[in-house]
Amino acid sequence: MPIKNRFAQMHAEITGWRRHLHQYPELMFDVHETAKFVEEKLRSFGITDITTGIGQTGVVAVIEGREGGSGRSIGLRADMDALPIEEDTGLEYASKNAGKMHACGHDGHTAILLGAAQYLAETRNFDGRVVLIFQPAEEGGGGGLEMCRDGLMERWSIDEVYGLHNMPGAEVGSFHIREGALLAATDEFDITITGKGGHAAAPHEAVDPNLAAAHVVVALQAIASRNVDPLAQVVVSVCVIRSENEAHNIIPHRVVLRGTVRTLDGAVRDLAQQRLEEIVDLTARAHGCAAETLYHRGYPVTVNDADNTRFAADAAEAVTPGVDRATPPIMAGEDFAYMLEERPGAYIMLGNGDGATVHHPKYNFNDDAIPAGCSWFAEVVERRLPLA
């Protein structure tokens, strides 16, 4: 079946919710007003089984189907937090919270799941239970992990879990998915290279950490070009180079490098960390410096279960024909990965049309994608938990 008629009817209303959320973005776990808005909407739909404060500020709600004979529960997840970005869209509903912006479309994801929740609460055309998961702190805080640590999967007996994310550059309302690794593990590193400061006019009397740092930046690129199988993806990016002074004529005593490593495979992740630490240490020593590397493991790889991916793609095909079932992996990260480590499930990308990419001050979620997103969530439930 195509876009469900109910979502076409609700489109303007759901768009209104999305634009309200867009005006009042909140960061990380500090999503109290967003969570309150979500809870109020859920109660207005007649949903009473609502628990707040999961994973600090997450919201979990349950909709019982018309029949409960299957005893199965499906989790549907949306993220609620925004980014510390100053908005530059000029929209009439632009952010009213200075320095905060829904620049990744989580306002759209939350509105879509609310729309699906209203429909499912009205129809209850399924056999089992739907667990609605509204998560804080996806943008670096690991809210998904915190919700799992609070017993999300066990307390609500979730059997499988599904989520979606908008995809700028793809046709509005189109769906894109793949089995296996879809999104990357997101690790970070902090490197401190220490030498001996001095006058720039007498470099022989100093030990220049800038020179060592420059060689480290270049040498780290050998991880991708010479250490990892060319058919395996890895990204090593040095994003910050900072010394302790800004003068034109002083060789600093210390230089700090910061960056990220992205991988799609556990073995490659281990290798990348090992080689990074070795390269930094040996390159610094070769230049007479000392180096300290702090390597921080971030979100794991987002891995779609094969069976659930096929099912999710079939549900998407029923909404919008022509589903991309082998979309290339994306080297961005997503903490929905933690939920997929605990339960089988799938994560799908929803086309957002042309426009700025995510994490950009001119980004805006495309409200025309709302009916397709809502329909997919509803289709997943009704197909996975069919009435007898």
Overview of this structure, please?
The strands form four sheets. A seven-stranded mixed beta sheet has the order 1-2-4-3-5-15-6, sandwiched between helices. A four-stranded antiparallel beta sheet has the order 10-12-8-13. A two-stranded antiparallel sheet has the order 7-14. It contains eleven helices and 15 strands. It folds into two domains: 5-182 and 301-384, Aminopeptidase (3-Layer(aba) Sandwich), CATH 3.40.630.10; 185-296, 2-Layer Sandwich (Alpha-Beta Plaits), CATH 3.30.70. The protein has helices at residues 5-23, 32-44, 106-123, 143-149, 152-155, 209-220, 222-227, 266-286, 306-319, 336-342, 370-384, and strands at residues 49-54, 58-64, 73-79, 129-135, 160-167, 175-176, 180-183, 185-194, 198-199, 234-243, 250-251, 254-263, 290-296, 302-304, 345-351. The two termini are 19 Å apart.
Sum up the structure in keywords.
alpha+beta, Aminopeptidase, about 35% helix, 4-stranded antiparallel β-sheet, 15 strands, Alpha-Beta Plaits, 7-stranded mixed β-sheet, 2 domains, about 400 residues
SSE sequence, one letter per element: HHEEEHEHHEEEEEHHEEEHEEHHEH
Overall mean pLDDT stands at 96
Structural class: alpha+beta
Over the alpha carbons, how many angstroms does the gyration radius reach? 24 Å
The total domain count is: 2
Query: Could you give a short account of the major beta sheet?
Result: 7 strands, mixed
- Assembly type of the shown chains? single chain
Number of strands: 15
| CATH fold annotation of the largest domain | Aminopeptidase
